Input
Amino acid sequence: MNSYETIVVGAGGVGSAAMRELARRGQKVLGIDRFAPPHDRGSTHGETRIIRQAYFEHPDYVPLLWRTYEHWAELEKASGAKLFTQCGLVEAGPADGEVVAGVLRAAEEHSLEVEQLTASELTNRWPALRLPDNLSAVFEPTAGYLLVERCVETLLGDAKQRGAELLTDCEVTGWSASDKGVEVTTTRGTFTAGALVITAGAWAAELLGELGVPLTVLRKSLFWYSSTGVERAAELPAFLYELDYGVPYGFPPVDGQRMKVAVHDGGVPVDDPLEQAESIDAHELEVTQRFLAEYVAGAGREPLHTGTCLYTMTPDSHFVVDRHPEHANVVFAAGLSGHGYKFAPVLGEALVDLVTTGETELPIEFLGLQRFHP
Output
C-alpha cells in the first residue's frame, strides 16, 4: 500500500493548484485524476477563462481575487509561461440588473478601477461593439483572460518538479478517514495518506454526497466564430452582456482568426458526467448567433468549431470550500458554478492551509458549508 502525506483527488483547476502548493511546502503528494489533465471531460478546458476583480456576483470575492492575481503573476514569472492576457473586460446590461450594478457595487466597496461608458464611447473605442440605449456598460481595465489548459499544465508541471506524483486515468471508487489518516481506493490500487483534498469537479457529488449539499451538473456549449471580418478584432476586450434572452460572453481572438463565445446562464442538466454528450445545445447556439448579429459587427454567423464543458452548480451559485465536518484531515472545494477557475491558485492555497494547519487567513468564511446548514 502506497502512503503519502496528502492525496489530492481531482487534478484539474483547483486540484493542480493544491498539488503545487502542497509540494511547494515540502509535502509528499499524490494527485489522482480520472483522466489525464488537462483534458476536455470536465470544467477546465476550452482555451480561455475570464479573470476580473470587480466581481458582480458578490464583493466578498474581491480580496480573494487580489490574492489570486498575485498567484498567477508569480506562476508566470517562475515558469516563464504566458498565462494571463490583460485585455480588459466590457460588461453590459440594464442599469438595475445583476451585472452592471454588481460591478459598480464591488468597485465602490473595494476602490477598484472601473469606467462607465456610453454607447458612443464604447463604439469609438472598439468599433465592432454595440450598445443599445436601454443598456449600460462598464469597463474593467485590469481584467483579461487565462489560457486554461496551459495554466493546468504549468501548475502540474511545477508540482511534479517539486516532487509531487500524478496518477492519471484512475477512478477513485471510495475513501475513508480517521484520526490516523485517510485511505483512498481506486481502480489502480489503494493509497493512504495523512490527509485528503477533494477537488473532483463534476464528480464531487459522488465523493461528498453525505454532506447534504445538492450539486447540479450542467453541460454548457462553447462556440468559436470567425473574427476575420471584425474591425480591430485583436484589440477587443473580453465582454459579457446581460440580455433579456441570455448572458453571452466572449473573448478577443487568441489565434487571430476565431473568437470564442458562449452563454453563462442556462445549461442542460447531466445525470452522469461520464456520459457527457458532445451535442451542442440549440438554445445556446441561437443565443450566441443572435448576440453576435446584434452586438459584434463583422463576426461570423456560423461556428467554425464547437465544444462542451461542465458547470457544477450549488443552490446559490457560490462555491463551497471547507473542511469536512466529520474529518478534520479532509478538505474540499466543490460547486464552482461556472465562475471558479480564476480562483484556482488561491483556493488551492486555502485548502492547503486548512488541511495542514486547520485554519486559513484567507477570507473564505462566506464560502463555507455552514450556510447550507445554519
